[in-house]
Design a protein that fits this description.
- It is a single chain.
- It is built from nine helices and four strands.
- The strands form two sheets. A two-stranded antiparallel ribbon has the order 1-2. It has a two-stranded antiparallel ribbon with strand order 3-4.
- Helices cover 45% and strands 5% of the residues.
- It is mainly alpha-helical.
- It folds into two domains: 143 residues, no CATH class; 66 residues, no CATH class.
Amino acid sequence: MTSVVNEMQIEFDAQTLGDILGVPAAGFDLYVRKDKSSLDKAKLLDLAQRLSQQPGLKHPQLVKKGDMAPLHQLLFWFIIKNIIPRGQGRNQADAMDQCFTDLMDRGEQINLPAIMIRHIACIANSTRKHDLGYEFLLIRVFEHFGVELQKRVEAEVFDEVGSSTLMGCGFDLVQEVDPSSEQGLQTPAPPVSNSFSSQPSVEVLLQEQRLLAELTTLKGVLVEEKKLSAKRHEDVLAILAALIAMLSPSTP
């Protein structure tokens, strides 16, 4: 890929991009959206049948997110947020989305640097307006080549995979009932104080504890499923483990 950014010419291939980002430039690198012939019709049909949970399909087609199994919905959500980021079409998986969902489900390596280059080229050459995506990753590329940036926005760390995301993907979360409350009703939150405090409120801590319990329960379910398929849920378990560690109260 060759481009000019702020009058500075930059050029890199998948291997160079992988070195800059610190990720391997290896694995599946076919840009199926641009050329569906890279996968034969039988493979595309098999993907659509399995991900849509409709074995009777006769032809490959888009798959609605809501028709997928919960785990496939979560993997699809990860794809449209990180691998092929986009602002539209988040509820339908095309051939490329289905292919990546299947690869992640089976624990197969995806060549992210190669896919990034092909996706950026596709967006740049489109007649329609699209967000380029990969903003923070491209910042590292620009800085590597000495491109002067007018405004650098630091990355923010926050919990992307929360209970609302998991429930939106079709997972059933078990809500723990506070035994001190009557008939499981929640105690109303106290009025918000105008005074500033660096310590989290009791209500915030309780919410974090409830979310931690929900994530721990879900992780236990995934661990049991992982025994039946060695690598199937490895990435999801890593995400959940990181979230639990962030939410766990620190030792005084």
